[in-house]
Structure formats: C-alpha cells, structure tokens
Amino acid sequence: MAPSIRDLQLTQVNGSARSDIDMEDVRLLDSYDESGDNLMRIEEGMSRIQVRVTGMTCAACSNSVEGALRAVNGVVKASVALLQNKADVFYDPNLVKVSLVDYDNGLVLAFEIGALCVDVKSSSAIMFSIRQKKVTCVRLLVHPYKLLLMETNVLNSQTRHLVGWDGRAMEEDIKNAIEDAGFEAEILTEPSTSGQKPLGTLMGQFTIGGMTCAACVNSVEGILRDLPGVKKAVVALATSLGEVEYDPTVISKEDIVNAIEDAGFEGSFVRSSEQDKIVLRVTGVLIELDVHILEGILVNFKGVRQFRFDRISGELEVLFDPEVVHSRSIVEGIEAGSLGKFKLHVMNPYARMTSRDVEETSHMFQLFTSSLFLSIPVFLIQVICPHIPLLDALILWRCGPFLMGDWLKWVLVSVVQFVIGKRFYIAAGRALRNGSTNMDVLVALGTSASYFYSVGALLYGALTGFWSPTYFETSSMLITFVLLGKYLESLAKGKTSDAIKKLVELAPASALLVVKDKGGKFIDEREIDALLIQPGDTLKVLPGAKLPADGIVVWGTSYVNESMVTGEAIPVPKEIDSSVIGGTINLHGALHIKATKVGSDAVLSQIISLVETAQMSKAPIQKFADFVASIFVPTVVALSLLTFFGWYIGGVAGAYPETWLPENGNYFVFALMFSISVVVIACPCALGLATPTAVMVATGVGANNGVLIKGGDALERAQKVRYVIFDKTGTLTQGKATVTTAKVFSGMDRGEFLTLVASAEASSEHPLARAILEYARHFHFLEDPSPTKNTQSQGRVSNVSGWLLDATEFSALPGRGIQCFIEGKRVLVGNRKLLTASGITIPTHVESYLVELEESAQTGILVARDDNLIGVLGVADPLKRESAVVVEGLMKMGVRPVMVTGDNWRTARAVAKEVGIQDVMAEVMPAGKADAVRSFQRDGSIVAMVGDGINDSPALAAADIGMAIGAGTDIAIEAADYVLMRNNLEDVITAIDLSRKTFARIRLNYVFAMAYNVVAIPVAAGALFPSLGIILPPWVAGACMALSSVSVVCSSLLLRRYKKPRLTTILEITVE
After folding, report:
1. What span, in angstroms and rounded, lies between the C-alpha atoms of 557 and 560?
2. Which domain of life does the UniProt lineage start with (predicted)?
3. Which of residues 506 and 901 earns the better pLDDT score?
4. What is the SS3 string spanning 751-791?
5. For 780, left (φ over 0), alpha (ψ -120 to 50), or beta?
6. Element housing 330 (H / E)
7. C-alpha to C-alpha distance for 127 and 110, rounded to whole angstroms
8. Phi-psi label, residue 652: left if phi above 0, alpha if psi -120 to 50, beta otherwise
C-alpha cells in the first residue's frame, strides 16, 4: 500500500527562525489533483523496510534489536528473524513532523523531518524561496521522508519548485538504531508495494550461467523443485534457461535467483507470465534527486502496484493493475510528470536475452585469447627454445634455486591456472557442494594434478638436486583447449536459438498511432513503441511496412505477405473487416487497422511462446543422458585411479621395461600422465548436449515451415506414429459447405420451399445453415453469395424487408438438426435421426434419393413441416486438393490413415473412397471420437489425430499426438501437440518426417558421444602403448575432449538444412 502523509505541519522552531517573519501554517494536502498532472492520490497505509542484521547470536540479541527499532520515531511494529538475520520494520508516515529549521532573507536553508535535519545548501537540492507576507499557499508533496515537490502561490501566480536531498530519513534512523545497539545493518532493496500480491501461480524464466553438462541441469532442477512455493521447474542446458512455476505469495523471483546463486551458478530473472508488468529503460536519471522524483511520480500513480528501479542499469520494473491503467499511460505519465526530463523505452525480454548470449560468448572468447596468449610462451620455452642457442642459454640461466625457464613457466602457468582457470575451480566446487559432479571437476582434477606435480618436482629438485621433468605446459594447454571448446560450443549453441531470434525480429519496433477525438474524427498520428500498443488502438500501416499488431482492417485495401508466420507464400488480400496478423508485411495500399490482440495474446507472441516451451522441454530419450551423467564423473575418476595404480605398480613390479619411461622420468610420472589423460579426455558434455540441441534446432525449423511443436516429448512420439486419424469436415474437406441441389417432394413451389428452409435456419450458427441461407438468397435475388461471416446478419436484415418468415421457439438439436415453428406449424430440418425421433416416416423414393446423394459424397438434409416430409437438400463440402495425395504419401511412409466423422456412413465411405482411406468410422459423436482414438491405442500403437474444431478437442487430447489445423479454433489448438499454421495437410507429413529426421540425428549424436568415450578413454589410459607405442599427452586429450562437444552441437546444427519432403519423391513420381 502506498504511503499516506496527513497533517504534516510546517512550523517554526523556536530560536531557529527569524521572529519578524509572519509565516502561515502550511499543511500537506491529502492529494494533488491539478488538471493534466500525473501525480495521483496517495492512499492510506503503512510502509515497510527490510534490514539485514549481522552479529546476532541468540534470542537476546534479536530482542535487543527489536527494542531499539520500536523506539524509533514513527515505527509501529518491528520483528526480527534470528536465523534469517533479517528485520521487518513497519512504520506510519503520519507520525512525522516537518519543521522549518533555518530561514534567511526569504530563502529556506534547511528543513527538519523527523530526526533528519536537511541542509538545502549542501544537499544538491534545487532551492526555493518564500517571500515575506506574499505566501498565500504552500503545498508539499512528500514521498515518505523525502520532500519532492513544493508549490507556492505567490501573488496569484502559481510556481512549482522541486526540492530534494540525498539519503532516506527513516532508513537512516533505523540503520542508526541497530548500529547503536551494537550490530551491523544493511537496508535491503525491496519493491515499493501497494495492494495485494497477485493470486495464483506465475511462470518465471531465469537465466542460469555456469552449467556445463546434464549433471549441472539435474542439480539445479533438484534445488529449484525443493524450494517452498515452487510447483514445477525445468532447466535447459542448450539455452541456459530455467522455467519455474511458483506461487508469488510464498516465494519471490528474488528468492529463486538467490537459490540459483547459492547453488554456485549465475542466476538472473528474465521475465514472467505476469500480464501487468512492464520493464522500462529510463534515461535522464543523473542524481539522487532524480531518483526521488521518479519514485514520487510512481508511488502516487493510480494503478501502480509495485515498482523497482535499478540505478546501475537504469531499468525500471513496474507492476500495475491493467483494469486501472495501461502501460502506455504509465510511460506518458512518467515523462509528463518529470516535465520531459526522463525518457523511457520499453525493454524487450528477448532482446535482453540475446544481449546476454552475446556477452557470454564475448567473455568466453576473452578468456580463451588470454589463456592462449600466456600458453604460447610456455609451449615455445618447452619445444622451440632448446633448438635456438641464444634462447636456450637464456632459459638455462640459473636465477636463484631455479632456471630462468622454470621461473617463466611457473609464473605464466600460475596465471592461467588460478586466474583464467578460476571458473573451473568455482564450478567444480559448487558441483561438489551440491553433491554432484560434472566436467569442471574433471578439468580441475587434471590441471591441478599436472600443475601441482610440476611445482612439487621443482621444489624437490631445489632441495635434493634431483631434477624431474615438469609438465606446466600440460596444464596451460589443457585449459586453453577447453576454453576454445567452450567458446566454439557457445557460438554453436547460439545458432540453435536462431529461430526465436528471427521470430522476434518479425515484430516492428514502432507503430503509427492514429489519434482521434471523442467523435472518432482523425486529428493526428504519432509514432509509439510497438510494445505500448493497446487493444482498440487504430494504427496506420504504410505499404512495405510490417503490421505492428493483430487486428481488424477498418480502412483501406491491400495484399499482405503472411509467409513468415503461416508459411503460405501467396499474398493474402485484405479489405475492411479482414483480420491481420502482427509481424506480417503490407505489400501495396495503406491500411488502418484496429488492434485486437497485443502482447502475449498476439499470434506472433504465442508462436514464440510455443517454440520456447518446446525448446525448454525434455524429450524422454534425455533420461538416458541424465542417468549416464549421474555416474559418469565418478566412473572416470575411478578409471583414472585404476590407470595410475596399474601403470605404477606394473612398473615397480617390472611388468614393462624402463625404456618405456620418458627421459629423466620415473614410474610415478609415467603413470600420472596416463591418469591425467584419462581424466581430461572423458566428456560428459557431448552426452548432455546430444538431445536438447537437436530439439532446439528442430522446433525452430518446424516453426519456419509452419509447423509448431509444443514439446520434445511430442517430437519424439511423432516419429513412432502408426495411425493418423483425420476428421472429415474442415480437415480433409475445405469446410465450406455449399448446397448442390434442392428437391421438393410436395406440391410446394421451389421458391416457397427454399424460403421456408432459410427462415428456419436463419437463427442457426451451423455452417450448413449459412450455406442454405446463401443458396436461398441467390435463388431469389440472383445475388453472389455473401461471405459466410456476414450471412446471418444479412439474413436478419432481409427479414425486415419481408422475404424471410418469422420463426418462433427455435431450438438446435446437436447431432440431428433444428426445429422451430413458422406460421404455427412445426418445421424440422435435419438428418434421419431427427425425423425418426419425431415419428415421421421417410418414404422409399425419398430414401433412395438420399442414398444417391450420400454415395456421391454429399450430405442429405431432410425438411418436414407439420409432420410431413416436404423436401431434401443436397450439401457438398469439397475436398482439399492435397487430401488424396497426403493420404497416399502417409501410406508410403508406413502410416495408416483413418477417417472419423459424425456424418452418415454412405457419405463417409464415399469421401474415404475418394481420398483413398480404407478405415472409416462414421456417425461418431464428439465424445465418441476420443473413444475411437483409444480403440487404436489398445495394442500400444502411437496414434495421431488431425482436427480443427471444438468437437475435435477431446480426440486431440486423447491422442498420443494431437495436430490442430492452424485455421481452426483456439480450443482445438490448445488441446493439440502440433499446430499446422498453413491449414495444409501436407504439413502432417512434414511433422512426421521432421520428427524422424530429428531423432535419427539424436541417435547419431548419442552413438558418437558414447563411441568417443568408449574409444578415447582406453587410448588415453595407454591401452595401445605396449603394442603400437601410441600415447596421448594430456593436452592432446584435452583438445579431443573440447572438440567432442563442439562436434555434437555442429551435428545438431545440420538439421537447419532440413527441407520439407516433396510429395513427388514420397510417391515415387517421376516429373519430366
């Protein structure tokens, strides 16, 4: 709750102010409500300060701190948590007094607020004057204990003066009270809050730096899932991101970041699912006074719940009530409230993530180049210098107990080992602290063994005169090659997220807002940030520009290229009332659109969210890598020790000749080099990256081809699909029903019959009803059929003019048809079930006509009036042009197509025969479609369901793989695992083929990663040395390890070259 300050009185202090000044009492106004001002009412309530208290050892200490805090003027409640070393202090701003301390020649020199005396001259404040006997009104606006604004009415001319000072009075009082009690205090930064915290759970996204393999991922996930208030946590190695579902009333995002950092990793918050939060970059905040002004504006802004300003980065996070205020109003209000001094820009969370990726890659490159720069001289001293007499004499020059060459190598390698290589020790330490092991443990072990042995050899030589060879270059070269591998891996991993970056770049940075007066008349247009667009805004889109938001065209005509979103290359015509998608390109004429969906509701945002979610998810095959990672490092360390003792004991026992030893070497050094090679050549990273990098690339490739994949598990299941179940209407067919024939079986005139049927169907929303209305209107007035979406409204308008009859007691009967009363007689329009249930007999000749229609893939609609059948309408829904080819293509791929429909058996069989489907299920109700899916799953087969309507949602959810046609309903898309954006059945083949290609690549990655370790570890252990004399120096082993993970990522990147399968290839058609 924002603070309230009432009855603050500006009074003279005896002896402090001049007695000849006639000062009036000045009271703080309860609100500041000047027209055009953006400073809103300060609500009543308490304020809170959190303090970290160090030095407390027992309950007596906490009681002492509590007592000291409660004695502070204005403090209402104080509680101290001993174990958390934290104090919560609640205070009432109403209890503080403001007094005039010093006054000279009309100039205020100082104020006293509570226990804080403020010297205006020495506080970087903007001074103001109060002229004698000319002040009629003084209004102060005070943020808790910080004077921000003073307005005076001097000679009926209002002037505003900004005043402020460095420091926070209450915070200083609290801190001083704790320190006077003998403890150390630190004020904790906490968002200014008002109102209640949001209810329900939030999905937060966090960057997690320092993860190197699957073991790190498992460690972080385990820590996050154990936090109170965390419902779910998923961590992705390839993106270095974590998604956490948490209850904000139990745990905050800061607590989650702290938990990540306490585990030894680098953590930072990216964004959350909060719809009422905006992150802004503020420029113009230069001094402490500017910060106070900014806080004063926000704390009084109606609708602002919380805010946090980072003075270092200049980022401002604002949590607001969207029912009271919009993000654009906040930006404009802050800029206006600062008199134009502050400029605000909306921060795009994806842009922030991209910049972090670039920073990480740049940092890794700097580490690599620094290590290389220091390692090259070490290598030259060891290998090149002995062959150059002058340099050889220099490095052999004895300087103290060691040779000059030894001194140089020791110093250079120490910098590489403990400064540049510090990250490996830190990462290894946090892994061991969390009870896990990773690649950093292996690198730290291998390099430390080499370094400390070399140091020991030098010291032993200085003491005994027996000089053993040193291996400093092994340590430095090993770290250099590992950093090279990490740099290349970082570059490659960045490429895997190119799909999201390209999708983000589709959205324009700005938009042209059309400004209208209250009467809707055009006044002006101005450029605004695209992230500040609000629903209902009218936006102008010039030819060649990107559409800034989803919306409806309200003026103009044009063609729009939607290929970047739907994958459909043909430009789509747009006119008034046409819907448009943000991020698409306007090709020709200028358009005015009314924004309908913005932010996370927009199609482009939902696509990005789907791709992100898919990239964060784990495919079931990843469990194999997680298991291997959990035992990998301990196994390698055990093999390393076994290698060391095997070679050492074998040498001492005389199992191999001394001629195998290096010059001036011994059995210990000989065994140690093999042991170090085993430690550093093993690579758990390749296993950890095999699946997530391939899934990332595949989901991005799918999005570029109009196939949105919701998760790695769906991607994995799709490769095993045995059955694909198609809904008929709108999936295999175009979903645009048309009346092909109308036959009357009574003495009624044909026109009269169509008028009766159209009148009955005018109140129905069913697609068949709209088709009947179009047909009847065209018959009567020879008009072109109206667009489907306008048919109903136009029919009702026409009813006023008299061509439709009045229908009463209308009711829709799902799965059967409709009934109503016209001119007092009951009218039924529907299928056989409707008439049979109503006791109406269908004559034989009518039944024969129905059979004829159904066998030609048409649906027969029966019409009865006054319990007598009077006619039949034939309705056809044309097949999509690709339906038959896709069905044949699936069969060639070994997938069995099935059709499930609510239509009658004859029509269903006729359609199935036309497209080539043999398995048909007809007259199936929506709930029955889910049962049909389960019937195919009984033998363990993987079943995919392709549908587009609400009635398909149960089946989509029941299927192993649900594929929703992109042009279908939101409910169907929500229930599906795949979304086919193009509304083209060829994408069903693309989805299955992409899944097969992806998991073939994942298997290849695993084979390579496993084969590498299975082959490399024995070679490093010296298995080939007795027979072939092959030995891998540790630095060579390190280079192999570094390149192995890079090669796995590059293997996954080859999926970016994926091309959609050509049906001519699948069907083995030769095109001449």
Report:
1. 10
2. Eukaryota
3. 901
4. HHHHHHHHHHHCCCCCHHHHHHHHHHHHHHHCCCCCCHHHH
5. alpha
6. helix 327-337
7. 10
8. alpha
* Burial (CB count within 10 angstroms: exposed 0-12, middle 13-18, buried 19+), residue 894: exposed
Decide if 88 contacts 78 (C-beta within 8 A). Answer: yes
Radius of gyration of the CA atoms of the chain, in A: 38
Among 276, 440, 713, 727, the one annotated catalytic = 727
pLDDT in tens, 804-843: 888 888 888 877 889 999 988 999 999 888 888 888 888 8
> How do beta strands 9-12 and 98-104 pair?
parallel
If you ran DSSP here, which 8-state letter would residue 94 be given? G
pLDDT value of residue 300? 80
Alpha-carbon distance of 519 to 515, in angstroms, equals: 11
Place of tokens 């890659």: 361
CA angle 450, 454, 458 (to 5 degrees): 175
In this structure, are residues 597 and 551 in contact, taking their beta carbons and an 8 Å threshold?
Answer: yes
User: In angstroms, how far is the first alpha carbon of the chain from the final one?
Assistant: 76
DSSP of 940-1003: S-EEEEEE-SGGGHHHHHHSSEEEEETTS-HHHHHH-SEEETT--THHHHHHHHHHHHHHHHHH
DSSP 33-89: --TT----PPPP--EEEEEEEE---SHHHHHHHHHHHHTSTTEEEEEEETTTTEEEE
Query: What is the per-residue pLDDT for 353?
Result: 61
| Gap between the Cα atoms of 417 and 993, Å rounded | 48
Q: Is 786 left (phi over 0), alpha (psi -120 to 50) or beta?
A: beta
Read off the pLDDT of residues 956-991 as tens digits, 9 standing for 90 and up. 888 888 888 765 556 556 667 888 877 788 889 999
* Contact by Cβ (8 Å): 914, 885: no
| Alpha carbon distance 145, 576 (integer Å) | 56
Q: Which residue has the tokens 């429909």?
A: 901
Which of 95, 98, 100 minimizes the C-alpha distance to 110?
Answer: 100
Residue 238: band (very low, low, confident or very high) from pLDDT cuts 50, 70, 90: low
- Flag whether pLDDT at 724 surpasses 90: yes
Average pLDDT over residues 511-540: 83
Q: How would you list the strands of the sheet with 585-586, edge to edge?
A: 572-574, 558-561, 585-586
- pTM (whole model) above 0.85: no
- Both tokens of residue 733? 């067919």
* 960 catalytic per annotation: no
Contact 879, 914 (CB under 8 A): yes
Q: Give residues with Cβ within 8 angstroms of 799, minimum separation 6.
A: 759, 762, 806
Residue 1037, C-beta contacts closer than 8 angstroms, at least 6 positions apart: 478, 676, 677, 678, 680, 681, 1016, 1020
Phi and psi angles of residue 687, each rounded to the nearest 5 degrees, phi first: -65, -40
CA-based max dimension of the chain? 126
Mean pLDDT, to the nearest integer, of 999-1008? 87
Helical residues (DSSP H) of 465-533, grouped into ranges: 472-496, 498-506
Q: At 366, is the secondary structure helix, strand, or coil?
A: helix
pLDDT band at 135 (very low <50, low <70, confident <90, very high): very low
Range of lowest pLDDT (185-194, 275-284, 882-891): 185-194
| Residue 158 CB burial class (10 angstroms; 0-12, 13-18, ≥19) | exposed
Distances in Å between the alpha carbon of 1024 and those of 665, 682, 1019, 1039?
20, 17, 6, 19
Q: Describe the chain by its helix, strand, coil percentages, rounded to 5.
A: 45, 25, 30
Residue that has been written with the tokens 């109606």 in this structure = 302
- Find tokens 């966090």 and name the residue: 206
pLDDT value of position 495: 67
Rounded Cα–Cα distance for residues 782 and 504 (Å): 48
